[in-house]
Amino acid sequence: MVTTQGAPVRIGASCVMMEHSVIRGAGKHPTLIGHHVLVGPHTHISGATISDRVFIATGASVFNGAVLEEGTGVTVNAVVHIGTRCPSGTLVPIGHIAFGDPARIVPPSEASSIHQELAALGFTRFVFGFDANSLVDPSAIEQLCERYSSALSRQREDHILEG
């Protein structure tokens, strides 16, 4: 599924987007996908820039502001966090987390050790435009939903272009 939620999505030539992949332009972050990019099933890409000749495997997630340079491979269930730049030739192994500029790759067994660094990225500020101390705070969730639904309502009159 391709959806534009306030930002465009552009997909280059000779790309393969497999079933149940979600490709979203979100807020101030368009999704720009180069040529010869393979996106596996159950993959999520939101507001990222993906260069030519990139492989993104099943279940991977690539978040807002991420940049995958040519020849990057994001394997099964890997995560490329907000604002992360994966230089050419980067491989994000199965289930690992990439974050930072340039990307630092962290295995899932060490995810809790980088929690502070990930929190410092300011996910809600970067993606939704407001600071939240916690995504389990009921008032933060309420604000997030209100902002997101307001942004989506601006798309109410959109229509699909043929061609």
List keywords for this structure.
163 residues, alpha/beta, UDP N-Acetylglucosamine Acyltransferase, domain 1, 2 domains, seven-stranded mixed beta sheet, five-stranded parallel beta sheet, 17 strands, 17% helix, 27% strand, globular
What secondary-structure arrangement, pairings included, does this model have?
Elements: E1 2-5, E2 9-11, E3 16-17, E4 22-26, E5 31-33, E6 38-39, E7 44-46, E8 49-50, E9 55-56, E10 61-62, E11 67-68, E12 73-74, E13 79-80, E14 85-86, E15 91-92, E16 97-99, E17 104-106, H1 115-120, H2 123-128, H3 138-153
Parallel strand pairs: 1-4, 2-5, 3-6, 4-7, 5-8, 6-9, 7-10, 8-11, 9-12, 10-13, 11-14, 12-15, 13-16
Antiparallel strand pairs: 16-17
**The level-1 CATH class of the largest domain:** Mainly Beta
Number of helices: 3
Q: Into how many domains do the coordinates divide?
A: 2
Q: In angstroms, what separates the terminal alpha carbons?
A: 16 Å
Q: What structural class do the secondary elements suggest?
A: alpha/beta
Q: Unreliable stretches, pLDDT < 50, 5 or more residues?
A: none
- Look up the CATH topology of the largest domain: UDP N-Acetylglucosamine Acyltransferase, domain 1
Please, what is the average pLDDT?
86
- Proper CATH architecture of the largest domain: 3 Solenoid
**Shape annotation:** globular
Provide the spatial order of strands within the biggest beta sheet.
Answer: 1-4-7-10-13-16-17
* Estimated radius of gyration: 16 Å
Percent strand: 25-35%
Assign a percent range to the helix content: 10-25%
* Main sheet overview: 7 strands, mixed
Can you tell me the CATH superfamily of the largest domain?
Hexapeptide repeat proteins
Encode the helix/strand succession as letters: EEEEEEEEEEEEEEEEEHHH
Number of strands: 17
